[in-house]
Write a structure and sequence with these properties.
Blueprint (H helix, E strand, L loop, with lengths): L3 H6 L3 E3 L5 E3 L2 H14 L1 H23 L8 H4 L4 H29 L1 H19 L5 H15 L2 H9 L5 H29 L10 H23 L12 H9 L14 H9 L1 H30 L5 H5 L2 H20 L3 H21 L5 H17 L1 H10 L4 H24 L10 H30 L11
Helix pairs in contact: 3-6, 3-9, 3-10, 3-13, 5-6, 5-7, 5-8, 5-19, 6-7, 6-10, 8-9, 8-19, 9-15, 9-18, 12-19, 13-17, 13-18, 13-19, 13-20, 15-16, 15-17, 16-17, 16-18, 16-20
Length: 469
């Protein structure tokens, strides 16, 4: 995960806050990064996998056992508009609570705050299994959004305490790719749980929420005990490793003991370039949201019904996992995050156009194109976020900039909730063309922002820090 070439590209000389020279052995740094990867990344991946399962399983519940009249909508008498509102309320909670959550993570320590969030969203997922009407479903979805809101920006922010900019995209990708794994596992799990329909007098969708919420509650205890906080405080690093872990990041990343000032916050809020990053993230959030929530519905429109609709959601996400990790590794290796973002959004945009143009009855072709669209839409996010964090130069900027970026994405996610209209099945042209438009706009803006950074770099003085592209 941390190839020797990455270490070779890094300077072996670092300066601390008092400008004292600190020289490290590249081999020691490589060993440290690999150790961090073993302790930090797998647990973060597991946490996000469970979060993604609990967030998106409502899409599976919508069509689970629909042929027998036992899906979510029919069981509690929901209209399509009611269902859409329940999705939107979740995203409103996301928008409201993402930024405050990052400040809470800094105040209470990552292990404690993430464990609390994890237990809470697991409990809310189980409560969804007890929903009896539109009101109860919507209220619990709002609470679920409130507790899940802080996780993804929190994990991205958390990585800035441990990894240098050229090390982050692949780690963010491995975490984010768990959303694609959740899509794959979610379809497979829903297929199996669908066979429990009627067991204990409960519909299959109720069992789906209950069974997928339990692991989050139980594993939150493991997170509390094992999830690390900051390099300068963990006990599983010795004194020399802690010093190396913190010194190698100075001037490049966030520091656990650093305080956040109002001056830093104001400066971050006034930087117009960050708002271009946010708009690009809004652009990708439209397909990300619509794909996550409506893939089972789209697959149903491709001619697969009943439990088969759950099973056929697995391949697009499986392909997306491989593409996402590969693109992110390449963007880190060659320091081409902006190019990777623009390229992926462009391919996704073209794929969505093709998806909308194809005849509604061209099931096999549309299914293949859907795999391409899903894969490259997801693959654009890790390099985009890594690009943002690489250009947040202080702890305060990272604390505010990362959650603001993800919070702004809620605007795109709300748009994504409304674009796949039931009245347009099975072709869903509005959904596909809207996704295409936002993806292509994001691709263009990424190139524009890259051009701005390149021009700024040409005007820098000798000792000024370059903008990452």
């Amino acid at each position: 995960m941390a190839p020797h070439t990455d270490i070779e590209k890094s300077s072996i000389e670092y300066k601390d806050e008092e400008s004292e020279l600190y020289v490290v052995d590249p081999a020691a740094e490589e060993r440290l990064v690999r150790r961090l990867d073993r302790r930090v990344v797998p647990l973060a991946m597991l946490i996000y996998l469970l979060c993604s399962l609990d967030r998106s399983n409502i899409g599976n519940a919508k069509v689970l056992n629909d042929t027998t009249g036992n899906d979510l909508l029919q069981s509690i008498n929901l209209s399509t508009q009611d269902y859409t509102t329940a999705l939107m309320v979740f995203l409103i909670a996301y928008f409201i609570f993402e930024t405050p959550s990052n400040y809470m993570l800094k105040a209470f320590r990552p292990s404690r705050w993430i464990a609390l969030l994890m237990f809470s969203w697991g409990a809310m997922t189980m409560c969804l299994g007890a929903a009896t009407n539109f009101g109860s479903l919507t209220a619990v979805r709002f609470l679920l959004g409130m507790f899940e809101a802080g996780l993804f920006p929190g994990l991205v922010y958390f990585l800035t305490f441990w990894y240098k900019p050229n090390e982050r995209a692949i780690r963010v990708a491995l975490i984010l790719a768990c959303a694609t794994l959740a899509g794959a596992f979610g379809g497979a799990i829903a297929y199996g749980v669908g066979k429990m329909n009627g067991t204990g007098g409960l519909e299959g969708w109720r069992w789906l929420f209950i069974l997928e919420g339990i692991p989050s509650c139980l594993l939150s205890l493991l997170v509390l005990a094992l999830f690390p906080d900051y390099p300068e405080t963990v006990r599983w690093l010795n004194t020399e490793e802690r010093e190396l872990a913190t010194r190698r990041l100075q001037g490049l990343a966030s520091v656990g003991h650093s305080k956040i000032s109002w001056e830093e916050a104001k400066k971050t809020l006034k930087e117009w370039r960050l708002y271009v990053h946010y708009i690009i993230y809004i652009c990708i959030s439209v397909p990300f949201s619509s794909i996550s929530l409506f893939t089972p519905t789209i697959v149903s429109g491709l001619g697969y019904t009943g439990l088969d609709a759950q099973l056929f959601t697995v391949p697009p996400y499986a392909v997306a996992f491989v593409v996402t990790v590969t693109i992110s590794w390449l963007s880190d290796k060659y320091e081409k995050r902006s190019i990777a973002t623009s390229f992926c959004l462009f391919i996704a945009g073209i794929a969505f156009i093709v998806e909308g143009v194809l005849a509604p009855t061209a099931f096999k072709a549309r299914y293949g194109v859907l795999c391409v669209a899903v894969s490259f839409a997801f693959a654009s996010i890790p390099p985009l976020l890594s690009w943002l964090t690489a250009n947040l130069q202080t702890t305060g900027a990272a604390t505010l900039g990362v959650p603001m970026n993800v919070s702004m994405g809620a605007i795109g996610q709300i748009i994504g909730v409304y674009i796949y209209k039931a009245s347009e099945a099975p072709g869903y042209p509005t959904g596909h063309f809207t996704n295409a438009a936002f993806a292509l706009l994001g691709s263009f803006l990424a190139l524009v922002l890259r051009t701005v950074y390149v021009r700024w770099n040409r005007k820098l003085g000798i000792n000024e820090r370059e903008w990452r592209v």
